[in-house]
Amino acid sequence: xxxxxxxxxxxxxxxxxxxxxxxxxxxxxxxxxxxxxxxxxxxxxxxxxxxxxxxxxxxxxxxxxxxxxxxxxxxxxxxxxxxxxxxxxxxxxxxxx
Length: 97
Known about the structure:
alpha+beta; 22% strand
């Protein structure tokens, strides 16, 4: 019955399209932070158990991200993707814009 209720609505909600940072490959160059027109990229400190900063990473604030893909194009380490899209699709959309 939950499935029927989902499809009985006039509109269906879907996951918002937002950027995602690969924490293993991000090198904290901050090109994405500079490029983002919505200031959705934040600096994140990765700390050990004692609280010492091990490294810095880019982090996407999903509440602010508009899914425009500018950060994907700006990332030289290819550490950012747009959920549901290939890099080629993002680049093509940005080129058309």
